[in-house]
Amino acid sequence: MSMSCLYNPSRLKNARLMAKLSLDELAGKLGELGLPLTKQALSKYENGDLNPSSYIIDGVARILMKPVTYFTKGEVLDLGDVDYRIVKSRFSSKDRASILALAGDYFERYMQLEELTGLRMAHQSRLPHRIAVSNELDAENAALKMRRHWNLGDRPIASIVKLFENDGIKLYRIPSHEGFDAFVASPEGDLVMCFATIQQPDDSGPGGRRLDLPRMRFNLVHELAHAILDFSPEILADERQLERLCHVFSGNFLMPSTALKRALGEERRSRMNIRELIDVKQEYGISLKALGMRMLQCELLTQAAYRSFSIFYNMKKYGRTVNEPGRFIGDERPKRFDSMIGDALLNQQINYNVASVLTESDVEIVKEKYALLG
Please, what is the end-to-end C-alpha distance for the chain in angstroms? Predict the structure, then answer.
């Protein structure tokens, strides 16, 4: 049977979106390969109205950097409803479509690997049922409930990524992307999160950048809030209120009130000592900005003092053109997918060719990476 007969139209659109190409742009690149096509013809290929020839599929595969076999797979994974943490003014519809396509492709390969290794059900998330939240106190208590679920007490969390992955949450970290922080979705009963690598200015020299781990951690916990909190229709209709309650949950999860009061005392303050906050930031992995809000929420700071802190913070341009003082040392890189590939190779559940397809890497690169497997 010819490759053209096996062609799946949804794969062409998904690959094009991953590459952030319009139909016109893809048609132009095909023309450069000596395969003149119109935008209308490509649209018919994507809609399944026409089947492309093997020559067209080969050309598309070269341009979109996918193996030809990609275009003959089953339907693309449907992520379902997606909750975003974004800056709307800086996040275009093309950006949204590209990130959804990239993440969907990654999680599809992730689930395929679990099927091949017999871990599909064993590694599904084991989070508790959704927790009803209607006010800030409910959000605070929900955060404490999740800490009890993971037996965290009020201790610092070394790695949010490791905590989530150990409970079956699938994570995909993408390079820094203007306007995008994170999203959460639940395809096929799994809980998946895609989050951006976020950097801030560094003092190492002109143009220096370093990871903004506290912000990345906050984004992940914020998406957890969207996944496990149960809001009324009224709150869901009020985006500002919804986000505020998710912020409260995230702040208390990262920095419980008991730990904050132990570190800073229980007296309500009319001014702040930035040095104290830096010490707490470096231990708990929460930003100075979020700590200031936590102090206000825990009644450790007057409204006037919080306004003064916010003005000071914004004047300093922390996180934008100046790095925020204090550095949390941690590791927020997802590792479970890579670990599963290694284990599957070691246990001869997959071979290097399959690992190459699942990781979208050249076979020789895969062999070199897992050379210790013998």
Answer: 37
The predicted structure's pLDDT at residue 342? 93
Q: 25 — phi, psi (to 5°)?
A: -65, -40
Cα 18 to Cα 99: distance, rounded to the nearest angstrom: 7
For the purposes of burial, counting CB atoms within 10 Å of the CB of 271, is it exposed (0-12), middle (13-18) or buried (19 or more)? exposed
To 5 degrees, how large is the angle CA 168–CA 173–CA 177? 145
Neighbours of 80 (CB within 10 A): 10
So what's the pLDDT on residue 1?
43
Q: Lowest mean pLDDT: which of 94-103, 158-167, 203-212?
A: 203-212
Q: How far apart are CA 60 and CA 26, in angstroms?
A: 8
Strand 131-133, strand 229-231: pairing: parallel
The model's pTM: 0.91
Q: Phi, psi at residue 309, to the nearest 5°? A: -65, -45
Distance between CA atoms of residues 293 and 277, nearest Å? 12
Region of residue 191 (left: phi > 0; alpha: psi -120 to 50; beta: else): beta
| Token code pair at residue 126 | 């084991």
Tens-digit pLDDT profile for residues 242-290: 999 999 999 999 999 999 999 999 999 998 888 899 999 999 999 999 9
Phi and psi torsions of 275, nearest 5°: -65, -40
